[in-house]
Amino acid sequence: MNGIEKVATREGFNVLLCQSNEDLSREKRNIEALLAAQVEGILVSVSANTQTDLQHFEQVRQQGVPLVFFDRVPELPQSMAVILDDFQGAYQAVRHLIEQGCTRIAHLAGPQHLNTSRNRFLGYKAALEAHGLPYQEEEQVYSLPALTHEAGRLGMQHLLALDPPLDGVFAAYAIPSVGALEVLREKAIRVPQDIAFACFSNEPFTTMTQPQMTVVDQRAEQMGETAVRLFLQLLKRGPSYVPPHLILKPELIIRDSSLHLSHEPREPR
Fold first, then answer.
1. For residue range 21-38, what is the model confidence (pLDDT) as tens digits?
2. CA distance to 109, 187, 199, 215, per residue, from 156 (Å)
């Protein structure tokens, strides 16, 4: 939002913020309200529950209002979007866990109909396969029912029941990661000595956890700035312009949650 507002304000636009709270019906109502307000363009990151029902976005295009997606992008032909290379970000994070000595790494995965979740899962899987590590989806991957703190708690409890035990976790989203770390702390499982942990999204709170979280920075501010620039292109060139998908490069930020600095022996669980 900072990136969107900064560039939009500089270009003379006012920004209206609507939140779906991961609810498709609310997303639809937001779109209706924005169209009724005769906005000059709409920038969207779709809700976690947006799947094949995309008529509200088709309505935006039918009315000739510039539409740009960012981060989460629906399967909509000829849509303009700015996204992150989620596959590469996940691959880097899992490769880092492997370099720290992890050999049994689980994945807290998001809803697979979302492009972000799907590509992060594929990056996780590819990193394991590239380094010759075993992969059993039915055991090592827990699909979060929601992108919430409580879902992260439930997912971590499920993964801790696996035998043999895990020594690494890669989570697709930051908020569930807080719940997962909470469970590990309650069970006196040391991070990173017993389980190394990394997640997606460099949210401010990831530096406030104990330990601080290793994260994939998804270039949020740059993504917002780029989304506005794409909107300006579309506004200038009109509906005949064939829109592109711009892909930003991720950055792995290594913090204490994944660093086996001393490589000390792990305690049996």
1. 999 999 999 999 999 999
2. 11, 11, 13, 18
